[in-house]
Amino acid sequence: YVPAKGETVIGIVTAKSGDVFKVDYGGSEQASLSYLAFEGATKRNRPNVQVGDLVFAQFVVANKDMEPELVCIDGSGRANGMGVFGAAGLLIKVSLGLVRRLLAPHSDLRADLEQLFPCELVVGMNGRIWVRAASVQQTLILANLLQSCDTMTAPQRQQLFRRIQLGAL
Amino acid sequence: MKDTPLSNCERDFLLKAIEEKKRLDGRQTYDYRKIKITFGTDYGCCFVDLGQTRVMAQVSCELVAPKESRPNEGIMFFNLELSPMASPAFEQGRQSELSVKLNRQLERCLRNSKCIDTESLCVVSGEKVWQIRVDVHTLNNDGNLMDAASIAAISALCHFRRPDVGIQGESVTVYSPEERDPIPLSIYHMPISVSFAFFQQGTYLLVDPCEREERVMDGLLMIAMNKHREICSIQSSGGIMLLKEQ
C-alpha cells in the first residue's frame, strides 16, 4: 500500500516514543501520530493509547520524500469517527480493490451486506477491515465472506449471500 | 523486514473464539487443513500444500567418502531454508531461531528414527557411499511449517530414485538413467509430524495452527509418528507444562 494525503487507514500502534506514536499501516515505513492529534487532547490530557491498539486515522503528510504522518482529527478539530477502537472484533486483510468497492458511494456490495445481519465495519484504505457482529460465529462468517467475495462476480456473490441467509448459521 | 505486528484486539478475539471452540476458517479442534501433494518432473521433487502453507522438497545424491566412524553407512543431510518468499519476517541470513529449531526437528524426525536404510546406501565400504541430500524450501508461510516440511521430505524421499551402480573389483561405474533404471531408496517407515498448539496455559488445544493462531499460542508440541503407531520424536516448546491426560 502506498499512502496518499487525505486517505483514512487502520493502523496498529507499535511504539510510544516521547510525544509520538509509531503506527504500522502496511506500507514501507511506519507513520508517526502525535498524541495531540486526537479530539480533546492537550498536554495535560493525554489520549489513552497503548501499544497494539488499532487506530483509525487519516494521512496529513504522505509523499515519497518524508515520513508519513497521521492524525485522528479532521480540519475543524473534530474526531469524525477516527481514533482508537476495537475492543472485540476481528481485523482482516483484503485487497485494495475490494476496499474501494466497499467505500464507493452506491456500492451494491454494501447493500448486500446490510441485509445479512447487523454488524459494525471499519474500513481502512490500506486494505484492512475490522468487523464485529453480534456473536463470534457471525463475525467469523462475515470475515470469511469478505475475503472470498473479492474474486467473485456480482451474481455469484448474491447467490452466496442468499445461501448464508437461508442457512442462518 | 518486520512482519505486521499483532494488534491487541486480534489477540483477544482469537482467544475468545478458541474458548468457544471456533477457529478462523471454520475447522474443528482436530481438523487438518486440506493437504495437496504434487510431484515435479524430476525424481525426488515434491510440493506440499497445507492450506495456504506451501513447501518444496528436493532430494539429490552424490558419491562421497563415508565418515570414519561409520564406514558402512551412507550419509543423510537435511537442510531447511526459510526463504523471504514465505513471509516478510524471514530474512536471507539463516541465523533465525525458528530455522535452527525446524532444522533440528526435521533431522531428529528423519535421521534418528532410521526410516531410511543407510547401509543399503553403501557402495564400497570405507571408500564410497551415497550421500542423500534433502533440501526443503518454504514458499509460503501460513502456519505449521514443520508438518508441511516433514510431509514434503518423506514424500520426496519415497519419490526419489538413485542411479544404479556396478562394481567390478575395485572400479565402480555409475550407470546413467538411460542405461539402467534407477533404484528407489529403501524406506522402512514414514514418520510424519503432527503439531498441537496450546492456549491459555494448556486449557485449550488445537491441531495444525494457522499463522495467526501460531502468533497467539502459548506452546507448541510436535509429535512425529508413523503408521505402526510408533512415536519417532517429540518436541515441546514454549515452556508450558502438560498433564499426562492432555
TrEMBL record, chain A:
Keywords of this entry: Cytoplasm, Exosome, Nucleus, RNA-binding, rRNA processing
Domain of life: Eukaryota
InterPro entries: Exosome_RNA_bind1/RRP40/RRP4, KH_dom_type_1, KH_dom_type_1_sf, NA-bd_OB-fold, RRP40_KH-I, Rrp40_S1
Keyword Acyltransferase set for record: no
Compartment annotation: Cytoplasm; Nucleus, Nucleolus
Gene3D superfamilies referenced in this protein's UniProt entry, alphabetically: K Homology domain, type 1 (3.30.1370.10), Nucleic acid-binding proteins (2.40.50.140)
Broad class of where this protein is predominantly found: cytoplasm
Every K Homology domain range: 89-137
Keyword rRNA-binding: no
Family: Belongs to the RRP40 family.
Protein name, UniProt field: Ribosomal RNA-processing protein 40
Protein's organism: Xenotaenia resolanae
UniProtKB/TrEMBL annotation, chain B:
A Pfam short name: RNase_PH_C
UniProt domain Exoribonuclease phosphorolytic: residue ranges: 32-163, 189-245
Subcellular location: Cytoplasm; Nucleus
InterPro entries for the chain: ExoRNase_PH_dom1, ExoRNase_PH_dom2, ExoRNase_PH_dom2_sf, Exosome_comp_Rrp42_subfam, PNPase/RNase_PH_dom_sf, Ribosomal_Su5_D2-typ_SF, Rrp45
Keywords assigned: Cytoplasm, Exosome, Nucleus, RNA-binding, rRNA processing
Family per similarity comment: Belongs to the RNase PH family.
The protein's name: Exosome complex component RRP45
Species for this entry: Xenotaenia resolanae
Lineage, opening ranks: Eukaryota, Metazoa, Chordata, Craniata, Vertebrata
